Amino acid sequence: MINIGQINSLEVMKVENFGLFLDAEDYGSVLLPGRHAPDDVELGQKLDVFLYFDSDNQLSATTEKPIAQVGEWGLMKIEGINQTGAFASWGIKEKDLLIPFSEQRTRFRAGQQVLVYVYTDKASGRIVGTTKFNKLLDKVPANYKRNEQVDLIIAERSDLGYKAIVNGTHWGMIFSSDVFGKLFIGKRLKGYIKDIREDGKINLSLQKVGVAKMDDLSSKIMDTLEKKGGFLPLNDKSSPEAIFNVFRASKGTFKKSIGGLYKQGKITIDADGIRLSE
């Protein structure tokens, strides 16, 4: 089945000097221009190509990888604006992605970086983008468990912290008190369900919450020490950034974890770092 706006594996039907003709099934053949074609291609060989409609509404193929395919979010730069809407660079040189005015939460300016959801407009059949995420999210009740690991995309900054897209289906909030490390719009990372409020809103954490986060980090510290020959150049005086880069945890949680391991006699805490006890 051919999926427009996504990467497809298509068979080479014909080889010409100017490019390759690929079998697009019900859509007939599609040209992959020579500038995108790999060398030494043989008939019958399958190539992974991205399919889209060009400015003349003709099916086109490229080996360029888009920032986001249909059904995905991606951080894109606004290249220009006209009477139709804004046009974002989505990784395909021959064509920018249209974000119609009707699909913009706020008006954009050229050069702005914007998180965009890519979809196929049912009325026109065109591949377009939207920043009106509310119509895509929270359509089903949140059915998560406390400390469940989820995929996050940072979508908005607010006075309370950061709004994030949870597993591509729900809104969630990371409050400022739970933020550590560098967060920015469009960043993808793992997170955890902190709790689900009575109104169905989701609170998120970047590390496990409660006793579980301590146990989880303590295990990671011990595993890392064993892999590193029994020594790590980190201790309770290390910077939050250095700790986050290694364990993706806050300095506070790290200090409590190594304190607990020290009391159990599993490690020593020295001026230059921590060591496994002999």
TrEMBL record:
<feature type="domain" description="S1 motif">
    <location>
        <begin position="69"/>
        <end position="132"/>
    </location>
</feature>
<dbReference type="InterPro" id="IPR014464">
    <property type="entry name" value="CvfB_fam"/>
</dbReference>
<dbReference type="InterPro" id="IPR012340">
    <property type="entry name" value="NA-bd_OB-fold"/>
</dbReference>
<dbReference type="InterPro" id="IPR003029">
    <property type="entry name" value="S1_domain"/>
</dbReference>
<dbReference type="InterPro" id="IPR040764">
    <property type="entry name" value="CvfB_WH"/>
</dbReference>
<feature type="domain" description="S1 motif">
    <location>
        <begin position="3"/>
        <end position="64"/>
    </location>
</feature>
<dbReference type="Pfam" id="PF13509">
    <property type="entry name" value="S1_2"/>
</dbReference>
<comment type="similarity">
    <text>Belongs to the CvfB family.</text>
</comment>
<dbReference type="Pfam" id="PF17783">
    <property type="entry name" value="WHD_CvfB"/>
</dbReference>
<feature type="domain" description="S1 motif">
    <location>
        <begin position="145"/>
        <end position="207"/>
    </location>
</feature>
<dbReference type="InterPro" id="IPR039566">
    <property type="entry name" value="CvfB_S1_st"/>
</dbReference>
<dbReference type="GO" id="GO:0003676">
    <property type="term" value="F:nucleic acid binding"/>
</dbReference>
<protein>
    <submittedName>
        <fullName>GntR family transcriptional regulator</fullName>
    </submittedName>
</protein>
<dbReference type="InterPro" id="IPR036388">
    <property type="entry name" value="WH-like_DNA-bd_sf"/>
</dbReference>
